[in-house]
Amino acid sequence: MSTSDRRWSVLAAEAALRIAALYPEQMNIYADRGNIAVLSRRCQWRSLDVSVTSIGLGEPLDGSRFNLIYLGGGQDDDQRRCAADLIETKRDGLLAAAANGAVLLGVCGGYQLLGHWYELGEERIDGVGLLDVETTRSDGPRLIGNVAIETSLPGGPAGATLAGFENHGGRTRLLAGAEPFGRVIRGHGNDGRSGDEGCRSGNVIGTYLHGPLLPANSWFADWLITTALGAATPLVPLDDDLELEAHRAACRAAGLSG
Amino acid sequence: MSRLRLAAASALARVAGFLLRITGSGGTSAPGKILLALAPRAIEQRSARLERGCAVISATNGKTTTSAIVAEIMRADGATLVHNRAGANMAGGIAATLNDQRGDFGLFEIDEFWLPGLVEQLSPRSVLLANLFRDQLDRYGELDQIVERWREVARSDAAGRIVLNADDPLIAGLGDEANDPIYFGIEDTAVGSTSAQHASEQACCPVCGEQFSYSRYFVGHLGHYACRHGHVARPTPTVSASEIHLSGLGGSSFTLTIENDSFAAELAMPGLYNVYNAVAAAALANSLGVANEAIIEGITAASPAFGRAESLQVAGRDCSIMLIKNPAGANEVLRTLASDRQSHDLLLVLNDRIADGRDISWIWDADFEQLASSGGAIICSGNRGTELALRLKYAGVEGQRVVVTPNLGEALTAALAGGGERLVILPTYTAMLEVRELLVSRGAAAGSFA
Prior knowledge:
heterodimer; A: six-stranded mixed β-sheet; 6 helices; B: alpha/beta; 3 domains; six-stranded mixed β-sheet
């Protein structure tokens, strides 16, 4: 990745893993670039072709071109602009991609935008409604700190741990029938009370965990890649000593002995 | 009554400070907190006694260094300073400084978040607002909120003259709120780039809401910008730097222009970010009516502040300590290293204590990719050193160059034994304090620390 490249990276179009990174200039507040870097590198190290396409304000999203779509978080004003743009130019593409079984990952603000709506001050801002969640503001403090959750994903390890950092003012509520992404072991999660963290509907996942998420949890990066590829065979293992040590450090920071 | 109360509170705070020091409990701001609890108006009362008044400085990056340069300028102008030089920059630290030091001019760097309240209490003659970058989001919240707090400052009758960075579109617009603001900036387009760094702030025109377009980027989102539709343009600075020559860790030289006069300036601090600090200091001094000769004298005399590009010798080795704490600052430090002619061994120390920011995700926004093409060994330490090593792995730094040594003492021993011409230590804030302490205990050349 060139250091002068203001976008994450753009590679060949016809790759195995075809990532769309939405609004990399606005929705990148919690080092979302790290998530994209981990997905890309872990494919490259396995000689899997990977492409990352940045899609910004005003640019349409062709949902059939991508098997993994990433949406990070932004500052309030940036997120407001992106929310309007998301509905206008990318909603249909997102719905089509989700219907095709593409993986959609929304982190923090991106998670809120995958839901039905979120509140910003007195305003209620529409999301794309792919996740059955609503996000309100609370008079209470922002929910900030290291966090660890437990999650069981289809084809993934049962009761696996994800560690990260959360920092959100919104309280997100799961509507009837919606499934959380994981259960909080340490930290706040969706609202600081329910014990739920994030939301998952099929391959559409929203979570408040940054840190960034994927460097601290390489197993989950690989789960995303496998799921996006629809791969029947498992990925080639990598030398993950450092990744596993970093995962343990993030767990310790969250107060787990692991 | 209130004078008696202040005197009693002041004496108690000094006793508390003395006790804290002799018991080794440290804490430069604790006595100030005691003082404020007993005499809530102490800052106002004490600062009102400063014969030459006071000035305050706030910014995300460069507060301590800019203050150090202003201090040299004011000394050259004959002032005796009351100055929070160690960087205790919240209410407690300011109160303690006012209580402990005697002088005729107050110089205070102030935490971004605390600025509005402290400006009301200090009634400074000038307020320098130098830059805003994303920093420690877990502590400060998002930048928009800081900008709103600073808007109150720009409007405040207590604030005196407002000095603004013309090149930072997030804050240059605050000049519209202020009475006769002074702008500073960089005019040398040759030291800029036409593309932005990753995760730069996205500043938008307040009229049409569209992102500004840039003809030059200097540091992060600082640069030459304008609204595409002509609504807003970068103000023309009256204090500026041009003809800038950067010589790696050695420092820089540039032409300093103050209104209609130009001077050759030599700065013993590396990197373009320190040129910004020097020009900001010059603009603040200019707003206070300081003569140009004293400004140049002060800039030339200024040496790096506490842990900010300090150079020292340890066991016969040249070492530099350069604080890193957020992406914009870290990028400038990495860029400066890349332009230096010496070969370096690196010791990177990442802590996640409160003063560092508990959230370490910012390391993924900093361009550690710049280290992939450099040579030299890299040791990662600190309580989150492993994650830093992981960051380097994904930045494309060869694995055999990188070692993780969590224990800082052991890491320092190994780093000092390296074969490069210079050891460069890049610590986060609390790590910087630990590193300095260890270096002193290992006989860092006496007087090599400011």
